[in-house]
Amino acid sequence: MSSSAPIGVFDSGLGGISVVRQIVKDMPDEQVLYFGDSANAPYGTKTPEQVRALSFAIMERFVVQGVKAVVIACNTATSAAVNDLREQYDIPIIGMEPALKVACDRGDVPSDPHHIPQRVIVAATPLTLRERKFAKLMERFDSDNEIFKEPCPDLVEIVESGQLDNHQLVMDTLHHYFDRYDLNRIDSVVLGCTHFVFYRDYFRELLPDRAAIIDGNEGTVRHLRVVLESLGALAPEGAAGGVKLANSDPSERIAALSHSLLTR
Ligand code: DGL
Predict the structure, then answer these.
(1) Where, in this chain's numbering, is substrate bound (predicted)?
(2) Separation of 77 CA from ligand 1 center, angstroms?
(3) Cα angle vertex 22, ends 263, 230, to 5°?
(4) Is any ligand 1 atom within 6 A of the Cβ of residue 75?
(5) How confident is the model at residue 151, as a pLDDT?
(6) Is the CB of 192 under 6 A from ligand 1?
(7) Which residues have a catalytic role annotated?
(8) Which of 3, 33, 96, 150 is such that its CA lies 20 to 30 A from the CA of 123?
(9) Residue 206 φ then ψ, to 5°
(10) How far is the CA of 111 from the centre of ligand 1 (A)?
(11) pLDDT tens-digit readout, 160-212
């Protein structure tokens, strides 16, 4: 494996571009080949079998392109496909899962010997929240914390249809999902879908100041660095890093939207 080879990053559509932004920020020497599967988005309302088949097809593409690692910048594809992909391919594969641990660990305060139970909403796709992988994650934390699962498929559609700047639409949608909670008693909201990371400012507007907004992007990129470092596969310092965006939807609209999300 050549350290100057690119890293493949994929998502069901445009959400994974939020992860690419983090890679560019934290690992600027790396070359990234991004593939968004917008022609088949959303994944979150499909069956695990469908998402697995789509993920394998994207992986084949990356193999042909000679990537040195793959980041599944999609919690949904990770829950449906990461184990099977790892079995099939030798390339290091970094997956994503809702950052529930980060949210629950906020209850471990050094000045207090007892864990302070956290009230956490996990916003993700229906498939992520239904899958076994998430059930296992919940099991680790739900005896000491109160965890609420909130599937938000419309938040994926709003990004894909280029309506992220429609303030009224976005706030109405957030109220639709979250008004049932007493948000003053919530400690954090986990953005368990990479599309949702683009809504951070809207969530800030919705939530009281005391509630944290947590996503897994930084942790994922930290993990990517550790994996590449352990393999001696980090790009040489000062190498010309960069991003190439590709999408299964070849329209000019998606290309323009992808670029605007990358530089947002
Ligand atoms: N961005 C994806 C995730 O992180 C999935 C969105 C979808 O296609 O439903 O789960």
Answers:
(1) 11-12, 43-44, 75-76, 194-195
(2) 7
(3) 145
(4) yes
(5) 98
(6) no
(7) 74, 193
(8) 33
(9) -75, -40
(10) 38
(11) 999 999 999 999 999 999 999 999 999 999 999 999 999 999 999 999 999 99
